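lol so apparently i was supposed to do this last week
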Amino acid sequence: MAVKHIGIIMNGVTGRMGTNQHLIRSIVAIREQGGVALPNGDVIIPDPILVGRNEAKLQALVEKHNLKRWSTSLDDCLNDPYNEIYFDSQTTVRRAEAIRKAIQAGKQIYCEKPTASNLEESLELAQLAYEAGIKNGVVQDKLFLPGLLKLKRLVDSGFFGQILSVQMEFGYWVFEGDWQPAQRPSWNYREEDGGGIIVDMFAHWRYVLDNLFGEVKSVSCIGKTHIPKRVDENNKPYICTADDAAYATFELEGGIIAQVNSSWTTRVNREDLLVIHVDGTEGSAVAGLRECKIQHRVSTPKPVWNPDIPNPLPFQEQWQEVPGNQEYDNGFKIQWELFLKHVAADEPFPWTLLEGAKGTQLSELGLQSWKERRWIDIPELSLGVKKSGKIVNASK
Ligand SMILES: NC(=O)c1ccc[n+]([C@@H]2O[C@H](COP(=O)([O-])OP(=O)(O)OC[C@H]3O[C@@H](n4cnc5c(N)ncnc54)[C@H](O)[C@@H]3O)[C@@H](O)[C@H]2O)c1
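anyway here it is w/ nicotinamide-adenine-dinucleotide bound
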């Protein structure tokens, strides 16, 4: 058994996602468990170098997590052949430029979603990676949540019969920052900084819907900036230029209708921050982030509309929990392990920059639908023929 260290440049690691999900819960956790085992018995140990602007923050992170390497020079990190992977969880608008550089330096690419703030750039990155022949991947963490894995199991088992519709409720109240600090960064509420719930969440909804229920074929969306003014991290008021709620309907392959509400301006009265309700001819399911419950055709009650009497049916109690039947690890960590195996042992990894571009495409068309107040069909995306530096036949 050989042990191989693999150098990973981690950029944006002082941020919310970078620190918590990618560094602590993924890379540090993988190191603490002794690495990732490959099919041939070899083990890979990720060896991160943390990159950013703030020396003190980087140093503190490195010390706290028993690491050694940090740098304020991305170029130096890219020039070092020991670093095989470039990872990016910077704010969205900064990502494309850094990834272009990393592709040019021959690094394998893994990054947060959205891969860029517009489709043209997202596709360009996918094309550049393809032409350079490097491995690439995008975070699609929701696919690895226990609740969604249980839903996928139900879909694969044929439990639903024909799937008719999907309703998704996502959101919670994000404080305005005046009398309680906001729990999301202020750039999320400024369009010019890559913010907006449509750009943020449709990147998730695309892969969730595509992977669980069927490809998204068309979109109708209305967005809204419900809270026009917020207070930022430095206690300064600012004008919100980006949408903080989106009310969308998607048509999926096979005629499935998905209604999806995304909001940072709603108070939660449901079982989880994301709830997915699926109705099929043979059964229905309701999934949260971790749990999932079902009601089969044979155990479906028969309500009769009668507001003159108190409701006689305990609807919430008439569902059955789907058992876990396995241990569920952190979704970000699972995907990191799969990417590391992809890089080191050529294991499959279907969540590529092209898949990421599909997310950006859905956001862009959602915004267009809102602006033009109409349904929009979603063109198929594909990469062009290899021809260095140029995108040929990017969409058809
Ligand atoms: N997968 C998910 O569920 C999920 C959830 C939230 C955010 N995200 C995505 O992750 C990314 C980061 O989001 P976040 O909430 O962690 O944001 P954040 O603001 O907390 O972190 C942003 C990072 O970018 C760095 N950065 C910002 N401006 C910079 C500059 N001028 N120069 C150098 N570095 C700079 C910051 O130092 C920080 O490390 C975004 O693209 C966001 O869309 C993904």
